[in-house]
Structures are given as structure tokens and as C-alpha cells.
TrEMBL record:
Annotated source species: Paeniglutamicibacter kerguelensis
Bilayer topology: Multi-pass membrane protein
Keyword vocabulary terms for this entry: Cell membrane, Membrane, Transmembrane, Transmembrane helix, Transport
Keyword Transport: yes
Annotated TM spans: 21-40, 55-77, 103-121, 141-160, 172-191, 197-220, 247-266, 278-302, 323-346, 358-376, 388-407, 419-439
InterPro entries: DinF-like, MATE_fam, MdtK-like
Similarity field: Belongs to the multi antimicrobial extrusion (MATE) (TC 2.A.66.1) family.
Top-level taxon in the UniProt lineage: Bacteria
Protein name: MATE family efflux protein
UniProt-annotated location(s): Cell membrane
Length: 451
């Protein structure tokens, strides 16, 4: 066998092994990702039988909680690459120190958010339009949920530590047991103990603290065995916070894009808003699978760069980009076939069904772009390239808003409005993100080798 053929065979074998490694991380990560929406789904299902006011109040409270905690997702995204780099470099002590500092940062931020949420629950809910009984239930939900916010953020940070250690199975198991406990607690507190909406929020908070304590039970001995103090290191906490601030800005740019899109859909009428919400629900569901690939990319890229293995990092990036596009093609084809029937699962209104079908077809076309974007996002998070992600996030938002504004300048029917909204979001916004992320990985300048 000549040298070229030998190298090609080695690359092929390496790619096959890499594929197994990616799947071993991505599949459990997908299960853990689904757990958090299931917590909220359990709350909604149990509260839904209490009455309209209770459901509306809990829905408003959930929106406030999701927004606050969603912006803190950087706690997982900043600890994963930091721990993975140190693991790749063979420095377990530094890995555990980074995880410890991330956990302390989570507890500090969680405490601040809990206090703000508890005392600001009523003005927050009122500012969002709640009044009468709905306002009371919203306040109850927010205040009883604030007890669990520090635990929620601790779970994010601890999950990031384990991902950095190339372990996505443990978060899956913890999330599964937490979900089961959440359902039992909520049912008992809401019905036999007659705590109504407050009971559902309190049950979720208790379940979150249970998960947080399990993570501490697992991680504290590892930190001690690595020769690290349990006390936070000021510089380490600040370092995590600095990286996290850039990642929070990146997340904020994405949320602003989503809010602006909903605002435009609302302005186009109830039919457009209803259909847009259904298409966006499907987009969110598909995003879980793509985010699982992104999480695998974070952990693996961080480890390879920590080990100063630039060649392996390049191979990993190319492989996962292909996987993202291929997965997008498969899910896009499935969506295209399902589009004529999907609307019937959610509504009996024929006009909404038609608009939803068109929106899903456009989402189907956008899926390969989405796959590439999610994977590249994970690669650069794993590389610790948070500042670039934040800056281009804002650039992409600035590029997207004029496209979105153009939709409002024309008179649309429901189908036409939904179609154009998803053309500019699913294709226009995602294309801008794909271009800026692909530009970054065109060479090796984004790679920072070693710890």
C-alpha cells in the first residue's frame, strides 16, 4: 500500500472512531436536553385542570422564569470547554478547579436572581399585562419558583462540568429521576395539599434542589481527590464570569431576534401568530437534536485543543459540520413529507393549518443551514471563542432586523405572512449566522492550543 492510500485508510478509520465518540456524547445529551421542557410540560398539564386563570398565571410565570434562567445557560457553556481543555491537557486539578468556580458562580448568580424574582414578582407580572386573579397566580408561581433558581443554575454548571469530562450519561440519568420526582411532588402539592399553582412551582423547585444535591454529592469528592479546595478562587470565578458575559451577550442576541420575530408575527394578525407559534414549536423540537451535536462538539473540541491536537480538532470540525448538514437534509426531508399533516395535530382551523404547512416547508429547506449553524456554534464555544460569538451575534442581529422590517412593509394574508417570516428567519438569519461562523473556521486562527 502506497503512502497516500495508507494515510487515506487511517483517516477513514479515524473518522469512523470519531463518529462513535460523537454519538456516545450526543445521544445521552439529547435525552438530558429534553428533560427541562418536560418539567414545564408537567407543570402545565397538572395546572391545566385547575382552571383558566391558574393556567394563564402559571404560563406568565413560566415565561419570566425561562427568560431569566435561559440567559444563564452560559454557566454550562463556559464550564464545558474550560474543564474539557484541562482534561485534554491531563491536568485534572485544573479541570476540577474550573468546575468548582463555575458552580460557585452559579450559586451566587442564582441567589441574586432569586431575591430579585421574589421581591419583584408582582411588578414583573403586572408589567407583562397580568391583572386580577391571573396576576395573583403569576406572582405565586414566580415567588415559589425563585426558591429553586440557585439549584437550576447549579445544575447548569454541574452539567457543564460533566460534559467537559466527556460524560453526558450522568446528566441524562439525573434529569430522568428529577423529572419523575417533579411529577409526583407537583401532583401531591397541587391536589391533596391544595396548594394550587404555588404547589406546582414549589414541587419543581424541590426537584431541582434534589438534582443539584446529587451533582454536589458526585463532584465534591472528585474536587477533593484532585487536591483542590472547595472554597472558590476569586480569579477563577472572574474568568468564568468574563467568558460567560460574552456568551450571555450571544444568547441575548438570539433571544432578541426571536422576540422581534414574534412581534412582527403578532402585528400580522392572530392567524399569522398562531401558525408562526406552531412552526416555531417544531423548530424548537428539531433544535434539541442539533443542540445535542453542538454539545458533543463543545466537549470534544475543548479536549482536543487542551491536548494541543490541532489535526484532530480540524478533523472533528469537518466531520461534525458534515453531520450537521446531513442531519439537516434528513430532518428537512421528513418535515417536507409531514408538513401537510402536521397542523392537524395542533388545530382544527383550516386557515392556520395551511399557513403552518407553508411555514414547515420553508423550515424544511432551512434545516441543512440550521444543522451547520448549531454545530459551528458548538465548535467555537468548545474552543472558548466566546467574544467572537458575541460580536457576530450582534452583527447578525443588525443584519436580520432590516429583513424582518421589510416583512411589515407589505400587506400579507396569513399564509403569505408566515411564509415571508420564515424565509427571513429560517433562511436569511440562519444564512447570516452560517456565513459568519464558517468564516471563523476557514483557517486555524480560532484554535488556542493547550490550557
Amino acid at each position: 500500500m502506497n503512502e497516500a492510500a495508507k494515510n487515506q485508510a487511517q483517516t477513514h478509520e479515524s473518522s469512523r472512531g470519531l463518529g462513535r465518540t460523537i454519538l456516545a456524547l450526543a445521544i445521552p445529551a439529547l435525552g438530558a436536553l429534553i428533560a427541562e421542557p418536560l418539567f414545564l410540560l408537567a407543570d402545565t398539564a397538572i395546572i391545566g385542570h385547575l382552571g383558566i386563570n391558574e393556567l394563564a398565571g402559571a404560563g406568565l410565570g413560566t415565561t419570566v422564569l425561562q427568560t431569566a434562567v435561559g440567559l444563564m445557560v452560559f454557566l454550562a457553556y463556559s464550564t464545558t470547554p474550560a474543564v474539557a481543555r484541562a482534561i485534554g491537557a491531563g491536568q485534572t486539578g485544573k479541570a476540577m478547579a474550573a468546575g468548582r468556580d463555575g458552580i460557585w458562580l452559579a450559586l451566587g448568580l442564582g441567589t441574586v436572581l432569586a431575591l430579585v424574582g421574589f421581591f419583584g414578582a408582582k411588578p414583573l407580572a403586572a408589567a407583562m399585562g397580568a391583572q386580577g386573579p391571573v396576576l395573583g397566580f403569576a406572582v405565586d408561581y414566580i415567588q415559589y419558583s425563585t426558591f429553586g433558581i440557585p439549584a437550576m443554575l447549579l445544575v447548569l454548571a454541574a452539567t457543564g462540568v460533566l460534559r467537559g469530562m466527556q460524560d453526558t450519561k450522568t446528566p441524562l440519568y439525573v434529569a430522568g429521576f428529577g423529572f419523575a420526582a417533579n411529577i409526583i411532588l407537583n401532583f401531591i402539592l397541587v391536589y391533596p395539599l391544595n396548594m394550587s399553582v404555588a404547589g406546582a412551582a414549589l414541587g419543581t423547585s424541590i426537584a431541582q434542589w434534589g438534582m443539584a444535591l446529587v451533582y454536589l454529592w458526585m463532584l465534591v469528592p472528585r474536587i477533593r481527590r484532585a487536591g483542590q479546595s472547595l472554597a472558590p478562587h476569586g480569579r477563577g470565578v472572574l474568568r468564568t464570569g468574563r467568558v460567560g458575559s460574552w456568551l450571555m451577550l450571544r444568547t441575548l442576541s438570539l433571544r432578541l431576534a426571536l422576540i422581534a420575530t414574534v412581534w412582527v408575527a403578532t402585528g400580522q394578525g392572530a392567524l399569522t401568530l398562531a401558525a408562526h407559534q406552531l412552526v416555531f414549536t417544531i423548530f424548537t423540537f428539531m433544535a434539541f437534536a442539533l443542540d445535542a451535536l453542538a454539545i458533543a462538539a463543545q466537549a470534544l473540541i475543548g479536549k482536543e485543543l487542551g491536548a494541543a491536537n490541532a489535526q484532530r480538532a480540524r478533523l472533528l470540525t469537518r466531520t461534525m459540520c458534515r453531520w450537521g448538514v446531513y442531519f439537516g437534509l434528513v430532518t428537512g426531508a421528513a418535515l417536507a413529507v409531514a408538513a401537510p399533516f402536521a397542523g392537524a395535530l395542533f388545530t382544527t382551523d383550516e386557515s392556520v393549518r395551511q399557513a403552518t404547512m407553508v411555514g414547515i416547508w420553508i423550515l424544511a429547506v432551512a434545516q441543512p443551514l440550521c444543522g451547520l449553524v448549531f454545530v459551528l456554534d458548538g465548535v467555537l464555544i468548545g474552543a472558548g471563542d466566546a467574544r467572537y460569538l458575541a460580536v457576530v451575534g450582534m452583527i447578525n442581529l443588525v443584519a436580520y432586523l432590516p429583513m424582518l422590517y421589510a416583512v411589515t412593509r407589505f400587506e400579507h394574508g396569513g399564509v403569505s405572512a408566515v411564509a415571508w417570516i420564515w424565509v427571513v428567519f429560517g433562511i436569511g438569519f440562519m444564512a447570516a449566522r452560517a456565513a459568519t461562523l464558517s468564516w471563523r473556521v476557514r483557517n486555524d486562527k480560532w484554535m488556542r492550543l493547550g490550557v
